[in-house]
Amino acid sequence: MSPTATAAAARVSFTSDENLAQNRDTYKHAYLIDTDPQPIEPFDKDWGVAISGNTPEPSPFERINKILAITAKTTNGFVAPDAAELVTQAYIEHSGEPALLKRAYAVAKVLDEAPLYIFPHELVVGCLCCDKKGAPVFPEFGFNWVVNEMRDGLMGYSEKRTHDYFTYTADTQERLEKLRDFWDGNTVEDMTRSMLTDDVIKGSHDGKGVFFADAYIFCGAGHLGLEFERLLTLGLGGIRDMITGYESKLSLSDPADIEKRAFYKAAGIVADAAQRHVNRYAELAEEMARGESDAVRAEELRQIAANCRWIATNPPRTFWEAIQLVNLAVDLVYVECNGHSVCYGRFDQYMYPFYRHDIETGASTREQMQELIENFFIKVWDLNKLRNHILIRTFGNGGIGGPALTVGGITKDGGDGTNELTFMALDAHAHIRIPCPWLAVRMHANTPWELKIKVANLIRMGTGEPKIFNDDVAIPSMLTSDVELRDARDYQVVGCVEPDPSGKAYGWKDCGHMNIARVLELAINDGRCYNCGQGCPRWERCGKVGQRLGLATGSLADFTSFDQVLEAYDKQMEYWCDRQLALLNTVDIVHRKMYPLPLLSTFMDGCIESGKDVTAGGAKYNFSGPQGVGIGTAGDGLATIKQLVFDEKRVTGRELLDAVTANWEGYESLYAYVNSDRVHHYGNDDDYADLLAKFAMDTWCKHVEHRPNAHGGFFQPGAYSVTVNVAHGQNQWASIDGRKAFEPVSDCMGAVHTKCCSHDVRGPLAICKSVTKLDHARATNGTLLNWKFSPGALAGDTGRDNFIALMEEYIHRKGMHSQFTVANQETLIAAQKDPDEYKDLLVRVAGYSAYFVELNRALQDDIIGRTSLSFD
Amino acid sequence: MLHTTPSGEPCGLVSNIQKYTIHDGPGIRTEVFFTGCPLRCLWCSNPETIAPYRRLGVYPDKCISLEKCGYCLSACPHGENSPLEFDGGGVLKAAPPSERCAGCTRCADECPSRALKLWGEQTTVPELMKIIAEDRNFYRRTGGGVTLSGGEVTLQWEFASMLLEACHKASINTCVESALHCAPEHMEAVYEHTDLVIADIKHMDTKKHREYTGAGNERILENLRRTVQLGMKLVIRTPVVFGFNGDDENIRRTAEFIRDELGGRIIQYQLLPYRKMGTEKYDSLGIPYPMGDYSPPERADWEARLLRLQDMLSDEYGLPAVAGSSKKLDIGG
Fold first, then answer.
1. Do B19 and A669 touch (CB under 8 A)?
2. Fewer Cβ atoms within 10 Å of its own Cβ: the N or the C terminal residue of chain A?
């Protein structure tokens, strides 16, 4: 019998310390902890250590527990064909019109005609025009793969897709098949391909995987937030008036104004449709109220209708109306943009006036607002997104992806912004224990002690939420990207990792990744892969005919000084950054030509004012943010070369190259030595290696930062992998740092852990110091360090307070961003073996939390392999 | 016993330096484990610290085999007649080298995979202070510092005093974890620069004490009285091994001693659970685990018993008793 099944009956009052003592596998006994949820929790509420999601009925609100009971704890879903059909019809009806207007009519048609749902018990409504966990299809980006995967059995469950699979009816498949001819050759994917050369593709996801740049080919714009403050102040009607106002000032004949007129026309079409769409919810709620036999529920539905009716035009007055508008606005944007990581901004800041209003007027109580927040959070988990099976494998996990919600931090004026809602949002997570939204807490030198306690207790619970962001480095970092001080202070975290001026930036965050460890391979092997040979699909036109994948930068076998290694790495990096940026800018241009986003433009600062769509550079700030992956792997590789070849002369460059080419076979003692603590390794507070990791990262940043992008801004380098370190490793032969072929490269800013052993052996304080030797502020697209603690290290007051001290020091040292896994190795391994018993086990992946049993095996192994920081 | 380096500098014999320890004294600490101990507690989880000299640990799991490596034999002055033992596959056996080994440790220096590990290194005060000072920010944030442990600190009392003094000069909080089975003057010398003492009362019955630790408890109890007289801040621990010292009678006698003879002037009385730990270290040293036959009660069972003892101690004796060591220590300024 599963623990949760017996829990209600067997619940006894165990403290978290006692729970830890019960068993090494604390998770299994977690349900025994009586968490006694309260509508308003004390700031130091202790939810237990490493109990993750294994608690039945976690919320103090009966309604929330009922909603949880009908909400699947999975990112699997089903395919919803309605929007695809409506979009196709609109494109046929408006075939001669500019892309901007075609898009506007298509979005309007979906908002007007696609089915709507209001789910049982809920007080906040909204959906993606389909049922819970449904995913609409966006044929404009690429459509053949959707139909092909259905034909080939790659959309549903199969050996090639063991998680994040989608069901579909025969009717759905038939309806989508009918659209195929219309879209064939007319998608973002098709146009992008037509504009690329082999020189650009050869190193990409479609070639040898030195870099990936496919996120925005198959998906729309994401990793951004709306200007919620403006939306809540003006309301949808006010925004519509703004469009009309700007439009009325245009000259008739000025060519620039003629272009703007098209934008305003499109913006007007979608803004009107948005208002009608919200009114459709009001009508649906009224209709449901009439048929509702339960008088209490009928009254709730009537209030939902009244809320929607009001906010369809007017600015919200109450907390309930405001949270309803926030939820619907994001859903509207998803319907348009095919994005992921459309984020909820600084929730505790923009909602606070409504909180004050309700408390002062008695419109609602704190308890009622807490319930609304919890309901709203579950709404985010209802959303889903269709991805192809290759992307699913690359990322290891799916779902809507990236719905971050930020609390805490410095206000625009420079004070601390912590308020009651900061705490309520964190309590809401503890009360629902699902991995949405992705919570980010901003901290800084003056963060209140009470908030640190709340955050530490939540992290100890072990669901992986929240992440901690550091204002004291994120804000100065933004200033280097020419963001104004007040906007920089008002940043939100989007997606997994990226700081973003809330509602003011079209940031193209996470648009690609560069495997900088792979760049090192090509740098020291004269531009060739170690495993160059007949097995390679490019062999006939590359190695066989004397060509090479990269730039000829010399061979480690011939280098006579370490400076030559560094120089080769620098040149090789420039070569690959040129190609990655070429691909990204191509996709960017195609988005502008084929996929303008008029509705998103109305919700972002700058577009209405400038009369330009976001894809054309209308937003106040415009960035593109690819990431460097494999910092530790590259750093340890450089340190190994410097120490063994040049400083100690223990081996020759030739021998090292031979060893990795042989995948270390026949070089077992060298393999052991390279992996041992005798070689300088990043992550041990050892300048020798740490400064080389810094060089590896800085070189990446140097060749990316401030280079122009195609929507009027520039590139921002990031320094993290999220989960793609696994996929990049699968594209890479062995490496000098002691990694064997196809193992993951190092994750985010973390140290190397190979199958042989972990390279960071001096504990959390050394990691804290090593990682903060890297220049986090320079990674303007964000950084991330994943910490993994065994539960015992965080138990009791001692564990909590020393953990807080560790975080304080990380912040003090200008580390930008931390995320936490708190679980026993034993628990994770047990969950792999017996997934059914661990369905509620939430873990931190990187950038987000997920149900462990829903991750692919390679990613599970990578998480298990992360160095566990424990005192015992 | 004061060791000296080949160049004549005073040094200590140290088995291990552990960073981010949070259970042996307040805050985040760096813990220095001294080599050598006069007691032979059967439950000891640090067997590498018992002998007062350098020891070679052998970890067969990490050995790559003679065929693929062989660095240890090449380094060994005995060559083919090396005292190291190998199994049929050329993998190191989990056994200490025979008496022919002169202890040069060249094999451990050369072993690429760390299958041979040296326990006990001669370390000077400046060398230790460099490592200790690395985490100074963390000590200041948490009220942490340095804890000397072992092995037995007072066995190397001269070196310990020097190290503690150096810590104090660097404004680093100091804590000494000792069995106090030592000459009082050595103890007092160590105390000169000690901020907190952590000491065990393993059993109140000296016969039993001798049976399980190799020595009686008279000296220890006397040193505890003296410690309190000197006004030292003191944490007392009992490693509770049910079947040996976890019975009510012994715990009550311990409580009476603390209340009556120490005047209750302690910061905490910690009841620590016995855990079967360090077995892999015993294996690496070729020493059989002394409590191999002992089967402790089920975890939930002993946890409940510890909690009951804790309540008994605080309710009936008014002692600041805690089960485990994760309750914060408040040692004031």
1. no
2. N
